[in-house]
Amino acid sequence: MSVRILAPCPNSPNCVSTQAQDKGHAIAPFRYRKSRAEAKEALKEAVRSLPRTKLVEEDDSYLHYEFTSLLLRFVDDVEFLFDDETKTIHFRSASRTGYGDLGVNRQRMEEIRSLVEGKL
């Protein structure tokens, strides 16, 4: 099985990643205490509760969603990577087009963080 990694954020401010080193793009990962499978189900349930989301790829330790904005139908890619060794969920949320995102990607990931709080 190949080891997945999250792509680095571009220089534009429309991306956040738990693996980014700079303040503009960096965001804290999620931690989980349950089994990876249980944590993944809880995360999927939280994301399903959000509007205009589509799961496009999934394997044991990876989820890839597309989030579509309401008005202009912009698509953002959101990826989650489960690290069982450290019980950490790394993620990256990035706009496919444009430059700025008015903080939407960061806000979305903090919203998901609050939805999964205590459920992982």
How would you describe this structure to a colleague?
- With 120 residues, the protein is an alpha+beta fold.
- It has a single domain (15-116), classed as TATA-Binding Protein (2-Layer Sandwich), CATH 3.30.310.80.
- The chain is 22% helix and 30% strand.
- It has 2 helices and 6 strands.
- The protein has helices at residues 36-48, 104-116, and strands at 15-17, 30-31, 53-59, 62-68, 75-83, 88-95.
- Strands 1, 2, 3, 4, 5 and 6 form a 6-stranded antiparallel beta sheet that branches.
- It starts with 14 loop residues before the first strand and ends with a helix.
- The model has no long low-confidence stretch (mean pLDDT 95).
Jot down its keywords.
120 residues; alpha+beta; TATA-Binding Protein; six-stranded antiparallel beta sheet; 2 helices; 6 strands; 22% helix
